Amino acid sequence: MSDPVDPTTAPADERAPSPDVARATEPTPVDAPAAPPAGVRRYTRDGAAVTYEVALCRHAGECVRGLPAVFDTARRPWIRPQNASIDDLERVIALCPTRALKFERDPGIRAPAATA
Ligand code: SF4
What we know:
single chain; about 120 residues; alpha+beta; Alpha-Beta Plaits; three-stranded antiparallel beta sheet; 2 helices; 3 strands; binds iron/sulfur cluster
């Protein structure tokens, strides 16, 4: 079991949107190729990456409601992009009202065709 964490003293770039953080383990974004800027965390899966900028998050919860298997503020890392399809990640991240979340699709992965 991990130690409880005080969300007010955790490093800003490791805070999840909810203040209800009960515990934390070492945050380990998956396969981060290079250090992102301070306050930005990067999480990758095959074919895509998600970045999260804590300073922009306004706790609207669109991410948690849209893909609870990916965005779960009660666990670390709180973003697990491997738990959804690339298309679902793109769809839900587009709902983030502040652009705290950003989505990148690898160039070799085709986006779904637009429907009329
Ligand atoms: S949808 Fe965006 S602003 Fe809302 S909680 Fe998620 S990251 Fe924060």
